[in-house]
Design goal:
Blueprint: E1 2-7, E2 10-12, E3 18-26, E4 33-39, E5 46-51, E6 57-59, E7 67-72, E8 77-82, E9 91-99, E10 102-105, E11 109-113
Parallel strand pairs: 2-11
Antiparallel strand pairs: 1-3, 3-8, 4-5, 4-9, 5-6, 7-8, 9-10, 9-11
Amino acid sequence: QVQLVESGGGLVQPGGSLRLSCAASGSISSFYAMDWYRQAPGKQRELVASITRGGMTNYVNSVKGRFTTSRDNAKNTVYLQIDNLKPEDTAVYFCKYSAYGYVSWGQGTQVTVSS
């Protein structure tokens, strides 16, 4: 099994930045992808960013240019840098590990953007 622990959420003013972290532990595959999702109140969970084992990234159009995901394979940690935060970014952010059909989710971290 793989356990994921997210951190870095908080309350931030519009235009601010946050860096979310997702640390994986347990039986981690050498080849895994990590996805970042978010779920706003009353809305479905949506995929916002992905990163492969080799570091290739993909983003949903609404966050391109403001969200950057990266990974440190030595630390089994993935990051999501969020810049120029907007009120509509308010959500619980989750990371998802996937490898060879196995999936594990983190517990989520709350991001609130408000003045």
